[in-house]
Write a structure and sequence with these properties.
Layout: E1 7-13, H1 20-39, E2 46-49, H2 56-68, E3 72-79, H3 89-94, E4 99-103, H4 117-122, H5 125-138, E5 144-147, H6 153-172, E6 176-180, H7 194-201, E7 204-208, H8 210-218, H9 222-235, E8 237-238, H10 245-268, E9 273-275, H11 290-298, E10 301-303, H12 308-321, E11 330-339, E12 346-350, E13 360-368, E14 380-386, E15 389-398, E16 403-412, E17 427-431, H13 435-444, E18 450-454, H14 459-469, E19 472-476, H15 482-495
Parallel strand pairs: 1-2, 1-3, 3-4, 4-5, 6-7, 6-9, 8-13, 9-10, 16-19
Antiparallel strand pairs: 11-12, 11-18, 12-17, 13-14, 15-16, 15-18, 16-17
Bound molecules: manganese (II) ion (MN).
């Protein structure tokens, strides 16, 4: 999965009241901060220093240059000195990309022995950043405020997290979802307003007849299918469970052919996310299982039963985490079955086939098993269990008058015992703040059974993304309690009307 080499602009605000000597130092300090941020190795993207902004014209020009530079994913602003904020109004009004306000200061400690009024005038971000913050708040512009010394671990980490959110904001409008079939009949929560989704998120959501895809699948060369089957057999454990080995391999080959055919269709038609429906398989021999699992692992978004919202969210979260080191994985998920034993409560997560192997822990096997859904041949699928650790499950729902993004912090665990008869990839998690409150909150807020899940993003990153998109988000985490959540939902219904 390729991602662009985005950059973030560092724009320091000041004014010409302080004289050239002071402005020289402002520029010098800004350069040192940018150098330090880049040298830290903590930021996923490069920070680029821009000349100090001291006039309305230069601010407006710089903000528009940032808009027009396709490699610029956001602007980091900092007022080293006082920068009268009326100068910022036009630039901010015309600026369209993610905005971060780094509320820092060049020096860490007050220089007690030598401090005088010259020093105070030169180092007054405590003062200048309030003037700037005021106008951003007055104009109602969404931005991230990060507070602290620029060398601190906490500031670096927050900046790194925000950069990833900014990539999600920038890249959202490049997501194109290809649906083979419509939503599953009578299902409510996977439905949604596609026009509003394009207005809010920039997503293009199209549909094709599944037999358009069948032509692509049937056209795949036998040699290519055989080569991919070989790759599967070398990479995954074959769990034949006594089936005839040739017959098993033929079933696997159907999925290999589908993987190549679906990907070619998506590439030829410029789609980054795909939706299937077991009830609309046309001439496909099997419900795409292993094929979809492999495509998700490559970075494509996926949603089942027509769920284009989950497909786009999975793609978005894969884009956001693409550059992350040591990432643990992102997948479509479905809440399936509970363990209600006291002290061991959790939700077994899976889908009928399509769970992304990026979240797998340990060996990944291939099984071929019957599937009542879809009424086709027994599909081949990858089976595994998932990593332990914290993650987030998100659900984007359409409430009729607005979108709401639910974000639930969850703790992934191992199930107590193996589940040898379960032929799907699984995860098992307990939601925060607790099993009971987490579930009550999720249902109260209208969350779906399908989710876009990742180990690699935080609640805060997705809430910031939702805010930038102009939609409501509801966080369910360690701070959630039912009484406050009920009030929040009640108040949000007015705030987002
Ligand atoms: Mn489902």
């Amino acid at each position: 999965m390729e991602t662009k080499n985005y950059k973030f602009w560092f724009c320091t605000g000041s004014q010409d009241l302080y004289g050239d000597e002071c402005l020289r130092k402002v520029a010098e300090h800004s350069a040192k901060i940018v150098e330090g941020l880049n040298a830290s190795g903590r930021l996923p993207y490069e920070v680029v220093l821009k000349p100090t902004l001291i006039s309305q014209a230069s601010i407006r020009q710089t903000m528009n240059d940032a808009n027009n530079d396709p490699m610029c994913a956001g602007v980091i602003t900092w007022m080293h000195t006082f920068s009268p904020a009326k100068m910022w109004i036009l630039g901010l009004k015309e600026y369209k990309k993610p905005l971060c306000h780094l509320h820092t200061q060049f020096n860490k400690e007050i220089p007690y022995e030598t401090i005088d009024m010259d020093f105070m005038n030169e180092n007054q971000s405590a003062h200048g950043d309030r003037e700037y913050g005021h106008i951003v708040s007055r104009m109602g512009i969404e931005r991230k405020i990060i507070v602290g010394h620029w060398t601190s671990e906490s500031v670096m980490n927050k900046l790194a997290d925000w950069m990833i959110t900014a990539i999600g904001i920038i890249e959202s409008s490049h997501i194109r979802v290809c649906r083979f079939g419509d939503n599953m009949n009578n299902v409510a929560v996977t439905e949604g307003d596609k026009v509003e989704a394009q207005i809010k998120f920039g997503w293009e959501i199209d549909h094709y007849c599944v037999n358009d895809l069948v032509e692509y699948v049937n056209a795949v060369a036998d040699g290519d299918v055989e080569a991919l089957v070989e790759e599967y057999y070398s990479k995954y454990k074959i769990i034949d469970e006594g089936r005839d080995l040739d017959e098993f391999r033929r079933h696997v080959a159907v999925q290999a052919r589908q993987e190549i055919g679906i990907e070619k269709f998506l590439v030829d038609n410029n789609y980054q996310a795909v939706v299937t429906h077991f009830g609309m398989l046309g001439g496909l021999q099997q419900l795409p299982g292993l094929a979809i699992q492999r495509l998700m692992e490559k970075g494509y978004g996926f949603g089942a039963e027509g769920d284009w919202k989950v497909a786009a969210m999975v793609r978005l979260m894969k884009l956001m985490t693409a550059g992350k080191k040591d990432k643990k994985g992102t997948s479509m998920m479905e809440d399936y079955t509970y363990n209600l034993v006291p002290g061991k409560e959790g939700i077994l997560q899976a889908h009928m086939l399509e769970v992304c192997p990026s979240i797998a822990d340990g060996d990944i096997g291939i099984k071929v098993c019957p599937l009542s859904m879809g009424n086709r041949e027994d599909p081949a699928r990858l089976v595994f269990t998932s990593k332990e650790g914290s993650g987030i499950a998100t659900s984007l729902i359409d409430l009729g008058d607005r979108f709401r993004l639910l974000i639930n912090a969850v703790n992934c665990k191992k199930v107590e015992k193996p589940m040898p008869k379960l032929p799907v990839g699984t995860a098992f998690w307990t939601p925060e703040p607790s099993f009971e409150t987490g579930l009550e909150s999720w249902i109260l807020a209208g969350g779906a059974h399908h989710t876009a899940f990742t180990y690699d993003l935080t609640v805060e990153q997705m809430a910031d993304w939702a805010a930038a998109m102009g939609i409501e988000s509801v966080i369910i985490d360690k701070d959630t309690n039912i009484r406050d959540l009920k009030n929040e939902l009640r108040w949000n219904s007015i705030a987002y009307r």
